[in-house]
Design brief:
The structure holds two protein chains of two kinds. Chain A is of the alpha/beta class. Chain A has two domains: about 90 residues, Elongation Factor Tu (Ef-tu), domain 3, CATH 2.40.30.10; about 160 residues, Nucleotide-binding domain of ferredoxin-NADP reductase (FNR) module (Rossmann fold, 3-Layer(aba) Sandwich), CATH 3.40.50.80. Helices cover about 20% and strands about 30% of the residues of chain A. Chain A contains six helices and 15 strands. In chain A, strands 10-9-8-7-11-12-15 form a seven-stranded mixed sheet, with helices on both faces. Chain A has a six-stranded antiparallel sheet with strand order 4-3-6-1-2-5, covered by helices on one side. Chain A has a two-stranded antiparallel ribbon with strand order 13-14. In chain A, strand 8, helix 3 and strand 9 form a beta-alpha-beta unit. Chain A is globular, with a radius of gyration of 19 Å. In chain A, about 50% of the residues are buried. By secondary structure, chain B is an alpha+beta fold. Chain B has 14 helices and 16 strands. Chain B has an eight-stranded mixed sheet, with helices on both faces. A four-stranded antiparallel sheet of chain B has the order 7-6-14-13, with no helix packed on it. In chain B, helix 10 crosses helix 12. Chain B starts with about 25 loop residues before the first helix and ends in a 12-residue tail after the last helix. Classes of the chains: A alpha/beta, B alpha+beta. At the A-B interface, loops of A face strand 6, strand 7, helix 4, helix 5 and strand 13 of B.
């Protein structure tokens, strides 16, 4: 009899983390910093992974981890108010309790990127899940070639991490391009979708790793543009997003082809999902 | 309407004969004058249990603390429920099944297991449709969380068919990989008493899926009902130590070579009477490479997205969670319940479903069941039980859908609705 084991810890339980800090990023987006309960082991994670976040009496949702991977005592999440639960989570105040379980899923290919040029393309709230990998790469900057970042948002008001972006833009060992879909006369930056910034980006296509996170259509177009430039499909990585209830490969909601996005993703090689991206409603 | 593979039965009621009382002349074990053995058999051994001793067998299960559940007639169908006496079983009943059709029918004999599978499956015990996962209570600005206790009754599943043993094994893999504690606890306590099917149902295709009709090696006990005008008894095969323990106090006769041949004949007869078949050769690639096949549109026009197929499927495991606070808001319970990929909220992302059309939901269900399941769990997700065919209100037949896609598979590159 191959009955399942009783020895595994209960995967449904959440640990009560406390909110140390909350910062409004935009009108509908906030960053919260969570500290583990006393005696709880720090939450070590790989850039690209996510946690399940829970508010008592409200519910539970998956949210990417956006903090510094070398600082597991501070669990950072940037949350956009997209529904009832995310609105409540983004609105928490200092001292509140947020349930946390995780981390879950796959991370960005930090090892595979060693010795290569890195192109990071973020759309909208796709930047927060890429922040840990960028911090990690800048921490060991000498391991990588050129680092090109293109960040697109709907409008200047929708840009998150504004101060951090200014600091990144001031650096000479990376290039951080920002573009918006629409802007008023007070915007001196670029206007247009992220792919319009690619021709200006300098990288050696055959020796490049690309990391893309954002709306599916944006990831698809960015990946296609990179393939056109000569980047290998399997050197392009995307972060998928699907409905999730469990994060342990059981609720079935996040299935995308053969993948459970919570377990086999969210970060996957573009080459493995390129065909699926071509079909609506898959 | 053709009723493929269904035994045609007339409504014969044996006048004056109580079906639950087995006439002495029917049990040649008893009239042989020999005394039955009362020693615990070893795993792998076979014995004969007389129909007349079936109540003793049920008593032995109860004495060991098992809560016996099995097939019983309720609301015009054979469903799974408590079995406290042999009369709770659908004695002398059978059923007719076809796409979108299920009718109970009388048999001309007093068979205990003379039918196949109904709308229930054992997953309702191992993976209850509604289950609490934890409770939490507010403590100041914090909360305290307590997992749901995993203790509970030890079930003896009486009458697990070959396809159902396969479906339990499939769900074992799904839940074990996730480390679900409730399922593991219930499954570990469960005794599986298999029954060989003496006939196939009109929507059965276990032979195509390689899950039956012969009961596989993974069971605790396996019964084959041997029923002739002269005899009513069961060949019992011991599959585990737990199964052997049950038999220690049950009168059993030695099984003869002729008994084993009778079992082989029964299984062969069942295999020859399958109501449906499915060609599964290369099915993983067939479906994965055909998301743009026009058949999905056609089946989407018939499908009501009612979720029946996923509710009756013994392997469908999709679920959702619910936050249930009490009125004061001081206590909260986390429940899970069965969910279905046919529900629009199932794929909802940022307020709208990814799978808007019914055809995309049917495609997801069938492609997952028959194709991507192989990638995920190293087996098909279909055991060929036929429930999804029988209980579909519009009679959509998964075997027919596979055949339609097989007839004219589109080439992967040319397929469909590229955006």
């Amino acid at each position: 009899m191959n009955a399942p084991s009783l020895e595994t810890p209960n995967p449904w339980l959440l640990a009560p983390y406390s909110v140390q800090e909350r910062k409004a990023e935009t009108a509908d987006t906030a960053t919260i910093v969570l500290a583990p309960p006393t005696g709880h082991p720090p939450l070590r994670f790989e850039p690209g992974q996510f946690n399940m976040l829970y508010l008592f009496g409200v519910g539970e949702i998956p949210v990417s981890i956006c903090g510094d991977p070398t600082d597991p005592e501070h669990v950072v999440h940037t949350i956009r108010s997209a529904g009832r639960i995310s609105a409540a989570l983004g609105g928490v105040t200092t001292g509140a309790t947020v349930g946390v379980r995780g981390p879950y899923g796959t991370g960005w290919p930090i090892e595979e990127a060693t010795g290569k040029d890195v192109v990071i393309v973020a759309g909208g709230l796709g930047l927060p899940p890429l922040r840990p990998v960028l911090l990690e790469m800048l921490r060991r900057r000498d391991r990588y070639g050129r680092i090109e970042i293109i960040y697109g948002a709907k409008s200047p008001r929708d840009l998150v991490y504004y101060d951090q972006i200014q600091a990144w833009r001031a650096r000479s060992d990376l290039r951080f391009q920002t573009t918006v879909d629409t802007a008023g006369p007070d915007w001196y930056g670029d206007v247009g979708v992220v792919t319009t910034r690619l021709p200006d980006s300098r990288f050696e296509p055959k020796n490049t790793i690309a990391l893309i996170c954002g709306p599916e259509i944006m990831m698809k177009l960015a990946a296609q543009a990179l393939v056109q430039r000569g980047v290998d499909r399997n050197a392009i990585w995307v972060s998928l997003e699907r409905n999730m209830k469990c994060a342990i490969g059981l609720c079935g909601h996040c299935q995308f082809g053969s993948d459970f996005v919570c377990r086999d993703g969210p970060v996957v090689r573009y080459g493995t999902v390129e065909r699926a991206f071509a079909f609506r409603e898959l | 309407m053709t009723r493929r593979g269904v035994t045609r039965n007339l409504d014969i009621v044996i006048a004056g004969a109580s079906l639950e009382r087995v006439p002495e002349f029917l049990t040649d074990e008893r009239k042989s004058g020999r005394t039955p053995g009362m020693t615990e058999p070893a795993v792998g051994e076979k014995r004969i249990l007389a129909r007349a001793d079936f109540p003793i067998f049920l008593g032995a299960l109860r004495d060991l603390g098992y809560r016996v559940v099995g097939p019983t007639v309720r609301d015009g169908a054979i469903v799974y429920g408590p079995i406290t006496r042999v009369e709770d079983l659908p004695i002398g009943w059978t059923e007719r099944q076809d796409a979108g059709a299920y009718r109970l029918d009388r048999r001309s004999d007093g068979a205990l297991f003379g039918y196949v599978v109904g709308p229930h499956s054992w997953k309702k015990y191992l993976f209850p449709a509604h289950e609490r996962l934890w409770t939490a209570s507010r403590e100041g600005s914090r909360f305290a969380m307590a997992p749901e206790p995993v203790d509970g009754p030890s079930f003896a599943f009486l009458g697990v068919r070959a396809c159902e043993l396969a479906s339990i094994a499939i769900q074992d893999r799904v839940f074990a990989r996730a480390g679900d504690p409730g399922y593991a606890a219930r499954r570990t306590r469960t005794l599986r008493i298999a029954v060989q099917c003496g006939q196939a149902g009109g929507t059965c295709f276990c032979a195509s899926m390689g899950t039956g009709p012969a009961v596989g090696p993974s069971h605790d006990l396996a019964l084959t009902e041997i029923l002739t005008p002269q005899r009513h008894s069961f060949l019992v095969e011991v599959g585990s130590v737990a199964g052997a323990r049950v038999l220690a106090t049950v009168p059993l006769w030695p099984a003869t070579a002729e008994d084993e041949r009778a079992v082989e004949r029964i299984v062969a007869r069942t295999a020859a009477s399958m109501g449906r078949r499915m060609d599964v050769s290369g099915i993983r690639d067939l479906l994965v490479n055909n998301p743009g096949h026009p058949r999905w549109e056609l089946v989407g026009q018939r499908c009501l997205a009612c979720t029946n197929c996923t509710m009756v499927c013994p392997t469908c495991f999709c679920q959702t969670t619910e936050e249930v606070p009490n009125l004061s808001g001081e206590k909260v319970e986390r429940w899970r319940r069965w969910d279905s990929c046919f529900n629009s909220a199932f794929s909802e992302l940022h307020g709208s479903p990814i799978r808007k059309s019914t055809s995309s939901r049917y495609r997801q269900w069938m492609t997952h069941k028959l194709a991507t399941w192989h990638d995920q769990f190293d087996s098909s997700g279909c055991v060929g039980c036929g429930r999804c065919i029988t209980w579909c209100p519009v009679g959509i037949d998964i075997t027919e859908e596979v055949a339609a896609i097989r007839v004219a598979p589109a080439t992967p590159r040319a397929a469909g609705d590229r955006t």
